[in-house]
Write a structure and sequence with these properties.
A hairpin with a 4-residue loop joins strand 1 and strand 2. The chain has one domain: Gcn5-related N-acetyltransferase (GNAT) (Aminopeptidase), CATH 3.40.630.30. The chain is built from 5 helices and 9 strands. The protein is of the alpha+beta class. The two termini are 24 Å apart.
């Protein structure tokens, strides 16, 4: 199964994606607001979990390519920890630094939302990010997601004292997205 947008393809993982994903995940700028994948084994295990999630649920954080080359990962996942908003499906993204500023994260995320709401019939999709991660919060807002500060939470998988522990939470309900699935597109389409 492949999901296609104007410039991108979201697709299942291939063995050829492992090296570029590991390289991207070793970039401190890319990982600034994410928990590290410190080794190639950790990076490969992350991909293996996505492939298992796809087999179990029909979606995952897919590999994303543009013009036949790997640019990152964008997709959906069932949250595996307990919080006030779970059970839930989350959307997320990680784009290699060489492709920042091209609008790939919101474009691929819109395609993932379309799949999540139209094909998987998710009632709601959430996203979270560290308080200082302004770039991801801008993408969430572009997608039409909304934030209520009362929903912000301490991430149970982030150690106490880590600046990433406190997270903002954005939400988008299926009925709101279905009313206008292109609502999040700006005047320039990004």
């Amino acid at each position: 199964m492949r999901i296609v947008s104007d410039r991108l393809m979201l697709r299942p993982w291939q063995d050829a994606d492992r090296a570029p994903f590991a390289e991207m995940s070793a970039d401190p700028a890319v990982m600034q607001y994410l928990l590290p994948l410190a080794t190639r084994d950790a990076s490969d295990a992350w991909i293996d979990r996505q492939m298992a999630h796809l087999a179990a649920h029909g979606f995952c954080f897919w590999a994303v390519e543009a013009d036949g080359g790997f640019v990152g990962t964008v997709g959906l996942g069932r949250i595996g920890y307990t919080a006030h908003f779970t059970p839930a499906v989350e959307i997320g993204w990680r784009i290699a630094r060489a492709f920042w500023g091209l609008g790939y994260a919101p474009e691929a995320a819109r395609a993932a939302l379309r799949f999540g709401f139209e094909t998987a019939a998710c009632p709601e999709i959430v996203a979270n990010a560290g308080f200082d991660n302004d770039k991801s919060q801008r993408v969430m807002a572009k997608l039409g997601m909304s934030r209520d500060p009362a929903d912000d939470f301490d991430h149970p998988r982030v150690p106490e004292g880590d600046p990433l522990r406190r997270q903002v939470l954005y939400r988008l309900r299926r009925e709101n997205w279905l009313r206008n699935p292109t609502q999040s597109e700006g005047e320039d389409g990004s």
